Amino acid sequence: MDSTTMVLALALGNLALCAALFFFEHVDGRPAALSAWGWARQYQAAGWMLLAIGASGAMPEQLALPVAYALVFAGVTWEAGALWERAGRPRWRRVAAPLLGLAIAAFILCNLVDPIGLRALAASLILGAAYLAGAAALARGWRSASMLQRFLAVAGAVLALVVGARGVLVLAAPSGWGWMSNDMLRQLHGAALYLSALLGAFGWLLLGRERLQGELARLEVVDPVTDLPNRRGFFQALAPWMALARRPGQPTAIVLFDLDGFKRINDSYGHPAGDAVLAALADACKRQLRDSDLLGRLVGVEFAILLPRTGAQEALMVAERMRAAVEVQGVKTERALVKLTASFGVTTIRPEDSNVTLMARADAALRAAKAAGRNRVELAPAAAPLTLHEE
């Protein structure tokens, strides 16, 4: 593939991506990272197309080349910035914009001094550094990153080094470098640019799909209002402790609690206020627990707490501490300062328990607390001792 064909392929590929992105999530409030990535692809498409036009002789090269490279530099830089935006660094423009301006100025100066050697060196180093910045964004949070993200980071870094090395080798060895001729270097450089464009495009789309799948899987086990495990998530976490309860060892406690009179909040102030109250009270409750404890929202205003390695008396103290925290916690809404109380039922997991019997016993203790006047803690009756009958 000659240079003109390669440049034209890059231009058409980016134009096709731009056309697809125009209709992808074409709604108000699209993510900032997606918007930056869309602009990046448009800059690159315009730059490569202008280079193709200049190479064909339809426009003076002295005019087309600096503008084209400036657009390409901006596109690759903005693409790296979009990756940093996705990685949680929204202020990347404060660094990228001045560095991009310096890079463009350096390229124009190199092009005026030496239109062959220094120009190739500057273009290669600038593009390589921009691609490497994108790979660094993908490598952020390496330990928790998916295998796809790690692959994209490593592949992007390798291609960035290939892109950057071409200009250095051409300047250091104008006639070639050992067995590697300048023509081979040019071919490798073009292939690296083309693969970087493909990897960036497909990598972005695959990462978006992977993140969406992860978010959907998270929503299956997490309550969106309180950011606590929902019923399914709580029972998934409870399962191994149910199995351990069948073996001798430290007990595990379960606490159910229900907010008293919560219906009047929704009726008086509306459901948004009710959601705000639930979220604030959930945060207040979490502050009373250990890192190993688990608070979950089962349904409505009924919550459950898993207390590993905790006996009945210790669980009673935890529940009482949480009851007091809920009682003093005031939640300010748009219309009033809301205060609530909660009733608690406490039990421990028994070897013969199933999820049904465990929750039924804790619920019976909770209902006893409600019947006794609410805003109190009740312990489920202890298991009846086993008796042996002689025959």
What are the defining features of this structure?
391 residues, alpha+beta, Rhopdopsin 7-helix transmembrane proteins, Alpha-Beta Plaits, five-stranded mixed beta sheet, two-stranded antiparallel sheet, 7 strands, 64% helix, 9% strand, elongated
Structural summary, described in words:
Its EC number is 2.7.7.65. Residues 250-382 form the GGDEF domain. By secondary structure, this protein is an alpha+beta fold. The protein has two domains: 3-219, Up-down Bundle (Rhopdopsin 7-helix transmembrane proteins), CATH 1.20.1070; 231-379, Reverse transcriptase/Diguanylate cyclase domain (Alpha-Beta Plaits). The chain is 64% helix and 9% strand. The chain is built from twelve helices and seven strands. It is elongated.
Summarize the SSE layout with pairings.
Elements: H1 3-23, H2 32-56, H3 61-86, H4 93-113, H5 117-139, H6 147-172, H7 182-219, H8 231-244, E1 253-260, H9 263-269, H10 271-286, E2 294-299, E3 302-307, H11 312-328, E4 330-332, E5 337-339, E6 341-348, H12 355-371, E7 377-379
Parallel strand pairs: 6-7
Antiparallel strand pairs: 1-3, 1-6, 2-3, 4-5
